[in-house]
Every structure is written in C-alpha cells, then in structure tokens.
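Course assignment 3, question 2. Fill in each field.
Student: A.L.
Task: Predict the tertiary structure for the chain below.
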Amino acid sequence: MSVSTNHAPVAGHRRAARDETTPGVDWPDLCRRFVTAIPDRLALIFFSASLVVSVLLVAHAFNVYAAVLGTLLLTALTWRFGPSRLPSDQRHAVGSLVAIQIVVGWIWVNLPNYQQELSVARDPAIYAIRGWWLSTHSSPVIDATQLLQGIQGVNGATASAAGFPVQGDTIYPQAASTVPGLFAVVAHFAGLRAMLASNLVIGGVGLLLLYALARRIVGPMWALVPMVSLAVSMPMIFFSRATYTEPAALAAVFGGLLLLWSAHATRRPVVFAFAGATLSVSSLARIDGLIAFCGALFAVALVTALVSDEVDRRRLRWSTLLFAAGGLPVAVLGLVDVKYNSAAYYLSQVGELHQLFALVGLTIVASALLVFLPLGAVRRVVADHRSGLAQSAAVIVVLIGVILATRPLWWTAHLNTTAIGITAVAGRQKAEGLVVDGTRSFDEQTVTWLAWYLTWPVVILGILGLALMVRHIVRARDRGLLAVVLTVGVVAMLYLNKVSITPDQIWASRRFLPVVFPGVVLAASYVVYVVAARASWRWLAAPLAVLIAIAPALQWRRLFQQTEFEGGLAAANATCSAIDRGDAGSGARFSVYAGGPPAILGSWAPQMLSICSSSVVTVPAATPAALSQVRSNWGGKAVTVIAFDPTSVHWSSGVAPAPLYASVVRVWAQNLSSRPMGWMTVPCVFYAGVIQADGTVAPLP
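Answer field:
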C-alpha cells in the first residue's frame, strides 16, 4: 500500500505560514498616527462644512440635513488632499493628545458662561438670531410682506429693525450668512442654548489648527505654548463664548496656512488649490477675510520668483496659479452671499469693499509680475547677499514694531468721520471722564491694545520672534514659514495701522483675533524654540514658555466668570412667553414693539421675529389710533404689544400695570482707556398687553 506524503497542513500551520509572510497590524503605531492626525484633519472638515453651508445659502436652498450630508461627502472627497503626514513618533502623538485634551477642557470650562445677547445691540445677536431663523427656513432673507401690511397707514411705524433692514418687501439681515448657517445646524438638533454656546467648538477648532501649524514650525511640544497663550487670552474666550464670526475666520486662516505649508512640503500642485480655497473660507465668515488670502498669494508668488532652479520655478508657477484658482472662486462666493443676502449691508460697505477689491487687484498684478517677469538678476543679488539681507530684514521688522508701539507718544489719530462713530466715541469719552473729541479713532493705540490682553513682555517677544522668523526665511529660504509670516504681516500692517472700528474694548480687539493675536503668540513662541536650540541658553526656554502661556490669563481679574449679557436669555424667553399668552391659541402671532429699552440693550424686534416666531413691527408712537390701525391691518386678530416705557401706550384700565418682566442684564464694561475690568448692571423691565379694538392695550395678567 502506498501512502501519500502530500498531507494538507493543519490550521495552526496555515496561520504560522501567513504570519511569516504578512506582517501584523502595528496597533501602537496606528494609534499614534490617528491621534497625531486629528488636529490636521479638522482643516478638511471645517472647509467642507463652511463651503457646503455657503453654497446652500447662496442658492436659498438651506437644509440642515443637506448641510450635514454635504459636509460628510465633501470631507470624504477631499480627504486625500489633507496636510502632509507627520512622524508617528511618541512626541507628536503626546503633543497632539495634550492639545486635544486642553481644548476639550477649555470648551468645558467656558461652557457655563456662553453669551446671552439676543436683543440686537451688536453683531453677535444678529448672527444668533439669523442662526435660529435658518434652523427652520431655507432662505437667509426674510419675507416682509405681512409686516409691511401691518404698518400701512401708520405714521413712523417700520418693519425694519437694527441689523434687519427692509428693502422692497424683503428683510436682508446684516453680514455674511455662512457662520449663522453653521449655528443653524446646531440649533436644529440641539436647541437655542446649544446654539448660543456652539461657537466655543469653532474656537476650539481654531486653536487646534493653530497648534497643527505651530508644531511644524517649533515642534510638537513648544507648539502647545502659542495655543495655550491664545486660549487663555480674554479676546479668544470672549469672542468664542459669543456668536461672533472671528473664531471661524481664525480656523479658516490657520487651516489654509497649514495646507499651504503642506503644499510646499509635499510639492503637490493640487494641494495649493485646496490651500487657497481653505484660506478664502475666511471671506465666507467675514468680508475682510480676503486680506489674509492676499498675503498668502503674494507669498506663493514671491517664493516662485526667488527660486533659482528653472524646473522648480516652472512647477511653482503652476502652483501659484492653482492657489489663486482655488481661492478666488470661494472669495467670489462670499461676496455674492453678502451682495444678495445682505444687500443693505453690502451697500453700506461699498467704500471699504472698493479698497478691498483694489488690494486684491494689486496683489494679483504684483503676483503675476513676480511669477512671469525674468528676475534672474534679482535672484543673483539675493543669493550673493543672503546673510546681509537676512540681518537687514530682521532689523526692519524690529524698527516697524518700535514705530507702531510708540505712536501714542507722538501721534493722535483723528480718523473717525462718520456721524454714528463720532456720537458713539463722544458718548463713551464723556462717560469715562475723558476729553470729548468724537473724531478720535485711537489707531495709535493698536499695539497697546495687544499688550492690554497679551502683556507687554509677550508683545515684545512677538516682535523679536517675527524678526528671527524673517531672518531664518531669508537665510534658509523657508517657503512654508514665508507664507505664514507674509499672511500675518499683511493683515497686521493693515489693522495695526488703521483699525477701522469703534474703538471701545473689548469690541475693537475683534479685528485682531483671526490673525494678529495668534500671529503674535506664535512669533513669541518661536523665540522659545530658538533659545531651546542653543545649549548655553536652553535653561531660559522653559521660563519664557511659561511666561507666554500664562501671562494673558493674568489680565482677566474678576471677569472670567461673568457671562456677557447675563439675563438676556431669560428676557427673551419671557418675551416669547408674553407673545404666546397674547396670541391665546389663535395662531396669528402678531406683535408690536413699542421701543424704549436702555440703548445698551439694543432692539427687541429681531428676537421677537426670529426667536419668538412672531410677525413684528416697530411703532415708536404707539397711540391708540396707530395701534388700532395695526390691529385692523392684520384682520382684527390678537396683537401683542411689548413696551419698555409704560407711558408709551394707553392702557385699557386707565393706569399702567405692573411690569410683566423685571430683572437686570449684566454687560461687560465698554472702555476706551483700558481693557474691560468690570461690568454694568442694566435694568430690563418691560410691559405687555393685547391691543383692543379702540387701540388701547389690555395688560396681560
């Protein structure tokens, strides 16, 4: 009998054979790579969400489910164009994990103190009200037909309100729609309170993207320093607790710079286009976001002009074109949004927009000249005198910093020329006991403002760090760092020279949050990086890092736990409750705002329209004849009146009733001569009733 020797191997043998040829999964390495990549990938997610929301809003086809699904799809499509992969070593993984934990903790600590401004005194209320409106509507503009019907034949009555002007038969709310669209997604799924707090998440994304860029410049551990420094600063926390657009602009700028750095590192032309598009997302958040894009475009063109290798220069020439081709359509999308969804605001900003368009045109022309002109002689001069040029450039940076910082000693700016601006400045000067001169614009104080929030040591280190960065760029031809420095530099030079905003604090510092504040702390941290690299100076690195990280936190005093507009949400809820009671189940939801609150509390009408879902008109002269006419215009249905002055309407009982709501709202101090150090307690008392046929008002019980 013959016996076959071709036995089939047992299962254990099969596994052993496979293990010899196929390496197993390195789970620790996979985990390190995953954690390290999280901050980088936020750039793709934020870009996708912003672009999808903006397209839907421009098309007047906004839907929260379409926004979420579109974001997921676009993120998946762009995933392969993300930032260059970092080493999956322990230092990068630990640094990333610590950064994520810090940001999560930062959100958690600030969550109880989200701003509650819903009456339109300043911009955040406009964005919050628009966000709530978009959570249930597809269009960012509002049909005012029913409101205009209500005020027919009523002298002085209007369907417009602060930040919500009427043109024709449509309300065009103020400013860009993209950030309110992002808020709307949160509002739809989680409600009003979550929406008011949601900007903390966008701020957290901005902090992590700052870290993601910084670790490519100073390493994964020192990169924690600028992130923490910005995170504990008063402007970052204040504007992230509220529904401002600046945290979104910050995320877009540093996400775009991160991708631009990676484009230079990987030399992938398509990533240049993606970087340009991401940087331009800042213009979807704010119309002045184009300034950062201009700085970055000029940086890419300058790199192209100075590259000596012809093949490399040809490749970079195409990369420059792709960067512009990626960014300009997104910028146009942002301008279309503002022009057609915020028409009155667009017209009011025409002067500034013309200056912005001129800057964009100048940048494009200058970039084209750099890219296409034969500059061989210039390249030879730069190559032959690199060391001297590096030192000279660093000295120039320091001199510019000194000039800007010392301007209060030798110049007083009088660039405030609008009637509204002059009145606002004069009123605050009088309240603070200052010399009253409403033309003061306080532009000479801009660097001092930086020091109020970051401290002078950090600002000085920032100037020195920027000088060291410039010296390194010229010496080492560091392309990625050049993009960062020029982008920050262009924005800083424009706004530090002329801030173009009502100069009370903390309001005016919003100009610096997207680029200048993070740029200063990043440059200051570069000093730590340089010091740590020198053996004889290494002992100084840790103390400097601690100083940069914690100094801004020492500027808070007692304000950290004070919620801005504390009491505003309760007042809004009371207003909506009054309209519900006045409606008495009729479903009409008509209301009249008779005005009258303290100016600092702003206008009540927009929140009555959006938060309370009521058709509201403002009737400053609420006489019985006027109110009777409004009631008649709306078919004699129930109309609720909200009035802050009990004498502004005629009560059916003949005497003013007790107020329906009486409380206070706490608002941060608004100073010209210092950063905020305390708060104001403002009475918030209003009355409510229902219009009767004769135009008198029956008080709500």
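Instructor remarks: The chain has 29 helices and nine strands. Residues 1-22 have pLDDT under 50 and may be disordered.
Grade: pending
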